[in-house]
Amino acid sequence: MPPRFAAPDAPSLPLHVVEEAALAAWRAARPPAEAEWLNATGFAAGLGEVALLPGPDGRVAGAVAGYGTADKRARGRFHLAGAAARLPEGPWHLETALAGAELAAEALGLLLAAYRFDRYRAQPPLKAQVKAPPGIDAPRIGALAAAEWLTRDLINTPACDMGPEALEDALVALAARHGASVTAIRGDDLIAQNFPLIHAVGRAGPQAPRLLDLRWGDAGPRLTLVGKGVCFDTGGLNLKPGESMGLMKKDMGGAATAMGLAQAIMALGLPVRLRLLVPAVENSVSANAFRPQDILRARNGLSVEINNTDAEGRLVLADALALACEDQTDLLISMATLTGAARVAVGPDIAPFYTGDEALAAALAAAGAEGADPVWRMPFHAPYEAMIEPGIADLDNAPRGGFAGSITAALFLRRFAGDARYAHFDIYGWQPADAPARPKGGLGQGARAILGALPQVLGL
Question: Which residues form a coiled coil (predicted)?
Fold first, then answer.
């Protein structure tokens, strides 16, 4: 069932939202018995505090959620989602002075808090349902939540049930829901149609590698998304250690996030011509796996020396980006769980992005802040271009030394983006510990920032 707010006409209880600084005045305006109850329970309106309010008949008459201080709220997001998890079953409505982007973000968090991944084990649902607060764009927030649910479901599904075939099935189902079309190039047809890097990375996998191509919309600016769909990454012949392989079901997180973003774009009916390219492969170990020091030629003719088979994501993206640039596009965006270096740089909670376009960078940063989707611009640092040029070939897929790993990966991808207006997101796609509205597991990153930036960037 898609995420949804409680029915607007359902009888509901109030959830009061009170900051620490406003508690004394708010409490003084409440009935004396209620104020005494809050004093007795020690409620101080700290961030995350929740107190149930008793009615004269002994039943719950409402609740109050502490909203802390601005400094403490800046350390996280979706604060009311944590309160919703502690409310009794039934419909609730917000009593709050929040407005604008802050209210919209909290409303989104309330929908995201209801997410459960229950494919393999039943999970207790969120008991409370909250009505859409006045002043928000409820259909848009519902579309954002549904997009995030799709992304999480795709990432959370293990590779035994989410290989290239299943990822293709998921994309076909997404297209069918919104009247889009999908074509697929599979197996040796990738060689025949000049996608040598996608084929090389995926040919050792148990399922044929493929390039998936979704198209939707027949008018408006052209938007092309490219999502890394490595459904499992062993590292290839440069085999990962067991600890590093443990989360590699999420290595298709770029594809999953791009698919969630595409769903939101189509559900909201944005006036764009959307194209989504997903190279879907498994990076496996077999007799026909590609090898270190192989030199492969990409779709656009550049030669690539393979110095680590565990740097495979940039290879499959390279062919897809080259294809994207063969058609006109007004904006090209790639999304990938690409490098551990990005996690070292900014941690798991921030999606770093690269672009040489100042207006695009500013729009993404502003939309990320407004949409509770933290992003951070990283540099296409030109002096590092030499690090990805091995001499024996045009490009090196894994420069030695380990310095600036996320930057060199982005520079590698830029060689395949041509003259397009381009941004690359190096995301993590995983929530390492439970947080409000973000249970441990798969997580979309960057999609809301991109969606929020599109009106300004594409002139919608």
Answer: none
Token pair in block for residue 49: 């505090």
Reported as type and span, the H/E element at residue 297 is strand 295-297
Domain annotation covers residue 122: no
The per-residue pLDDT for 56 is 87
- Number of structural domains (the chain) is 2
Yes or no: say if 260 and 150 are a contact pair by the CB < 8 Å rule. Answer: yes
Rounded mean pLDDT of the chain? 97
Whole-model pTM: value is 0.97
Query: What pLDDT is stored for residue 401 in this prediction?
Result: 84
Each residue's pLDDT tens digit, 244-285:
999 999 999 999 999 999 999 999 999 999 999 999 999 999
* Position 126 in a domain: no
Q: Which two tokens stand for residue 42?
A: 């020690």
Residues 211 and 302 reside in one and the same domain: yes
For residues 148 and 87, state if they share a domain.
no
CATH number at residue 91: 3.40.220.10
pLDDT digits (tens, 9 = 90+) for 119-167: 999 999 999 999 999 999 999 999 999 999 999 999 999 999 999 999 9
Active site residue 249: no
**SS3 sequence of 209-250:** CEEEEEEECCCCCEEEEEECEEEEECCCCCCCCHHHHCCHHH
Please answer whether residues 65 and 50 qualify as being in contact, where contact means their C-beta atoms are separated by less than 8 angstroms: yes
Whole-number pLDDT of residue 185: 98
Position 402 scores a pLDDT of 83
Domain assignment present for 112 = no
360 contact partners, CB below 8 Å, separation of at least 6? 331, 421, 423, 453, 457
Non-local CB neighbours of 410 within 8 Å, separated by 6+ positions: 354, 378, 380, 424, 426
Place of tokens 């690539």: 304
Query: For residue 102, what are the β-bridge partners?
Result: none
Q: DSSP character for 131?
A: B
> Could you tell me the CATH number of the domain that includes residue 402?
3.40.630.10
User: Kind and range of the H or E element at 53?
Assistant: strand 50-54
The confidence score (pLDDT) of residue 345 equals 96
Both 85 and 158 in a single domain? Answer: no
Catalytic residue from among 30, 240, 297, 421 = 240
pLDDT value of residue 5 = 96
Active-site residue (options: 314, 343, 438, 448): 314
Within this chain, do residues 64 and 198 fall inside the same structural domain, yes or no?
no
**Catalytic site residue 127?**
no
Give the domain range for residue 373.
142-458
Residues 185 and 246 in one domain: yes
